Amino acid sequence: MKNKFNYPPVERMTRRKFLQTTGLASLSLSCLPVQSAWAESPATQRAGEFSELNATNPGGIDLYLEYKDLLIGGKPGRAIAINGSIPGPVIRMQEGKEALIRVHNRLPESTSIHWHGILLPFDMDGVPGISFPGIAAGETFTYRYPVRQNGTYWYHSHTGLQEQLGHYGQLILEPADPDPVEYDVEHSIVLSDWTFEDPHHVLWKLKTIEGYYNFQRPTLANISDQMKATDLSALEVINKRLAWDRMRMDPTDIADITGATYTYLMNGKAAHENPTLIAKPGQRVRLRIVNASSQTYYDFRIPGLSMTVVNTDGQNIKPVETDELRIAVAETYDVIVTLPQNKAYTLFAETMDRSGFARGTLAPRQGMSAEVPARRRRPMLTMADMGMIMHGDMEGMSGEKDDAMHHDMSHHDSGNGDGKELPTTNLIERIKHGPDEHGPASITMAQTAYRRLDYPGAGLGEDGWRVLTYSQLHILKTPENRRPPTREFDLHLTGNMHKFIWGFDGKKFSQSDMVRFQYGERLRINMINDTMMSHPIHLHGMWMDLYNGSDDYGDSPRKHTVNVQPAELLTVDITADAPGQWAFHCHLLYHMEAGMFRTAAVVRSLEGDPIDATL
Ligand SMILES: [Cu+2]
Fold this sequence. Notes:
Distance between the termini: 51 Å
Bound molecules: copper (II) ion
Strand order of the largest sheet: 11-10-13-18-15-16
Number of helices: 6
Oligomer: single chain
Shape: globular
CATH topology of the largest domain: Immunoglobulin-like
CATH superfamily of the largest domain: Cupredoxins -  blue copper proteins
CATH architecture of the largest domain: Sandwich
Structural class: mainly beta
């Protein structure tokens, strides 16, 4: 058997070696921007000055896409602006009406807009090569579709790496019925990440130089830091590191792109620009938070204020009070907060890897600010994050049956139409990681994936305040036609972070077939994260009902994007009610680009071609 932990000696290059070979060692990394020839002019507009449009008003709206020089965090950068700004305008739509959007492509290249989380005819979904050919340079494409839902969503490019350049904005769909969420004022919070490097250069470095942006690796010098943080002796720390090394994993690989290149933005503004949202004391303030980042998870909190979470991914949930929430890339959360007094509060969005933060202020008037909290320690992944559960490590797992451990990993389609319903509760608690046939693209992390809905995530939950978990999400009103699934399959999230190959079931998109959903069926997907990174998995066109471990299956939340944590087994159920073909992918932009992507075709029979929904 091939030693799965041995790489061919070629291709792998450490950062140090890269710097030596290229003679760049003496240059600071920030000296590689693409816009160096560009000179700042006083007339240059600042990023973050965006407008608001209503796409269901008579006549519809026009969006103009162009490259534009903007001041981003005060520094000149070349962005893809929508109607002159990054983020693009906030677009409102009224449920029950028809949205009409003319997109004018003034870029010298093809582009697209995908309406994230919106149920629509598949040829309006905006994914080049799947829904339509894309919008060629100089062309105008008209999107027109009925608005059949409400809530907070967003839109973005689905072409190449354009999203990294600012091609995104917030969508707000106003409900046709009275909104069950009561509020006096509302504000958009669009979180994102920005790099002054060419995103293609970023991707090239990720593929070529192991851990390029990870400057937080353990070194001999910081052994004492780790001892302090973990209460371990020096010997234990060293042993731990040796164990990690044997597995070719790095416990600090929380994010593959970090503050080394990223400027973190809230509403297009860097932390020092302090974007300020206005609310009077006593008002119920609805914050619509979207993570429009390419690659960055945020941990969001407002020190001194508790937040009531009322909506996620556009869906109203039973209100749950919390102090902090992790927002995966492409997720949305709406929270209600109230200023108790006439003072300012910091909107603090710390990156999951703690390499930076976005920040703003919620205050009764402009010009106020509050203390900005210190960044916390960089989290270390645990052995549990690697699926290395030792006996007795996990509370409540000791009574587990051994057969669960040896659950059959092969696809177990039970077929459709045999009337057999799958259980809705008491799902298997853990499962073995993928078989070795996942091939060279998969660094198999032996052993186990398990349900982690109660786990707030690496680096969270030990600060003495409440942190939201998926197990706390319960839908406010059970959707109609929610029924037990009749077919299921396993989907392994696989990757090799050292080679920057990402895929499903060990295959990149280019090597893979379509995933087939049978029209009308109720389908279960067990996602098994074989990697040590979190992946936000997004399905276009259809909801994923998240199995949240609740006894009342009817109140599971439904999501367009689910965060699958390291070594997690996470189950979703889908009603395949949307004819056509749809994208199904990891929403980390560079993972998607590296191959963590599938086409999900809704078919009449599982062997057949996609239903031609345009007829
Ligand atoms: Cu991913």
